[in-house]
Amino acid sequence: MSPSWIKNINSKLPVDEKIFFTPGNALQLDYISAGKGEWNAAIIYQTMRGVDAFTNATQLVFRLFVKPNTNSNALPMIAIAKDSSTISSFQPIQNYISAYTIGKWIKVSIPLKDFGDEISFEDINLNQFKQQSTDNKEHVLYIDQVELLPGEKAASSFPPPALTSAKAYAKHVDITWKPITDSSVKYIKVYRSGDRKYFIL
User: Fold this and answer.
1) DSSP-assigned beta bridge partners for residue 34
2) Cα angle for residues 199, 18, 107 (degrees, 5° grid)
3) CB distance 100 to 10 below 8 Å
4) Average pLDDT, the chain
5) pLDDT tens-digit series, residues 115-137
6) How far apart are CA 109 and CA 57, in angstroms?
7) Are 4 and 129 contacting, i.e. CB atoms less than 8 angstroms apart?
């Protein structure tokens, strides 16, 4: 609602293909939070056939990248919802950030119990964001890898995958490695370099 504003394309949040935590894009929240106005946006989970088994989740986890000129109080508030009419209590995102950093990916973990007990994790199908501050300034941040997860395990260090072969072709490389059996490993990032000094995804 004006004079607040959030960037959208046909009522959908834009994505950025240059800034992301996991390839190849991240959602962009570009907004102005003004007095006597309000903006809101939602990330909706689309049910997919065959993807209906979930481990009992206890927290909402996502990655956050904040561009300069945004202090933590200017971040949005977040809620979980079953549908547009069943929305939990909103929580300030900054309350769940231990080390607020500009220009780097931050991991945000919010216990589901903090949203209240009106919605069980099996029924969650969207996350709702809304403005918190009223500073009348433009802020840009990115959201990536939004997940419902069980309690976190103690941090551990994983060795690099054991490569078994790498074969180069004109436009790609086929790489194979030994299977990873640790269930806490969710994905493997592959980096490439032309000079063995600078590596990119």
Assistant:
1) none
2) 80
3) no
4) 87
5) 988 888 788 889 999 999 999 99
6) 12
7) no
pLDDT score of 175: 92
Angle at 109 (CA atoms; ends 108, 112), nearest 5 degrees = 140
Domains of the chain in start order, with CATH, are 5-149 (2.60.120.430)
- Name residue, tokens 């592959």: 190
What pLDDT band is residue 191 in, cutting at 50, 70 and 90? confident
CA distances to 73, 186, 201 from 189, in Å: 33, 10, 7
Q: Where are the beta strands (DSSP E) in the chain?
A: 5-6, 15-16, 26-32, 40-44, 59-66, 77-83, 86-87, 91-92, 105-111, 126-130, 138-149, 163-168, 173-177
Task: List beta partners, residue 63.
Answer: 107, 144
Secondary element (H or E) of residue 153 = none
Confidence (pTM): 0.77
Q: What is the structure's pLDDT at 143?
A: 97
